Amino acid sequence: MSEEEKNQETNQGDQQSDESVTFTDEQQAKIDELIGQQHAKWSKKLDQQQAEFKQQLTDAQKQAEERAKMTAEQKAEADRKQREAEMAKQNQELATQIQEYKTKSMLLDKGISPDMLPLVMGADEDSTSDNLGLLQKYVDDQVQAATEKLLAGKQAVTTGSNNTSSQEAGTNNPWSKDGWNLTKQTEIYNTDKEQAQKLIASAQPISQSFYVGK
Question: Does the predicted model carry a pTM greater than 0.85?
């Protein structure tokens, strides 16, 4: 390649690098808005972190000054209280974890998603059970009203072949007594309401119980 050709390629590369991406006024305004929002979020987070650091530093200095004035007996007492506070915090965290586990177990036993944990979890098993009862009553009322509306005016579903009847009434039917499963009820109801109606009619679940499609 000649020197002249090299210079031409260099000039073309410089021209391409000088080209800038342009936006419409509306696009640029939106970009500026997003950048401003992100900047404000970062600034707020940074200010919060700085405030927390200053507070921690102030508390540490204050504790050091107070500790310097203590006698050996007072220091021992302060250390004892600090250990007790840390142990109490650890016990509380453990109790919370245990309560979360128990609440999840209660939800799963009733066929309810563990995602509902923040809504029903109480300070102890009794309060959690009460909250779960209130939730289930509310859901029962809503599901029953929805089912009555859905099945209103519908013709009774006739039984199909023996295989179909066996499948709808047996353990493969999440509305049946033997195959009861709220998670599968939800999946079928959300994907195929007609099939859900057939399974409900076949299983004939108790009207007072909680089930999807009620």
Answer: no
